[in-house]
Write a structure and sequence with these properties.
Layout: H1 4-17, E1 21-25, H2 31-39, E2 45-50, H3 56-66, E3 72-76, H4 79-88, E4 95-100, H5 107-117, E5 118-126, H6 143-157, E6 161-166, E7 172-177
Parallel strand pairs: 1-2, 1-4, 2-3, 4-5
Antiparallel strand pairs: 5-7, 6-7
Length: 178
Amino acid sequence: MSSADEIQLLQNLCRTIGAKKTLDVGVFTGYSAMSIALALPADGCVCALDISDQNAKLGMPFWEEAGVAQKINLVVGPAAESLKSLIDRGEAGTFDFAFIDADKTGYETYYELCLQLLRPGGIIAVDNMLWDGLVYDPATNDESTVALRALAKKIHNDQRVHVSFLTVGDGTVLAFKK
């Protein structure tokens, strides 16, 4: 689950860019989806993607209590398929913001698909990019760490975005689409 300081920053970024249509890739208990929904206008929408609704069901009562349940559209299934479906439906270039916090080995795919879905000036926030410092440890080579390390290099060199790497939470990369 994301840290409160990271979520507060992401809420303020959404407010600053006037976000209305957002993606939350990896819902877990729904804390990030609810928090982003709170920052959106009344007609805003969080398209929340997760492989299962089991953990999200824990947070759904809080979505109701916060008055944002109507802003959150939970889509259950593999995130890559859900993102491709949005593209296939003609929604490329229509999202303002995306937050990626799911299975680490899928991050690169999610990043590429979110970049297609994002409008110019939109922001992708990628969580866990420090991975408890393991990305800097050359002796650590499990699949998740290697995937995060590779994505950090890719985003750093990606000419389609401007990048900020923050030590907020467990490391947050912000990619601002040109």
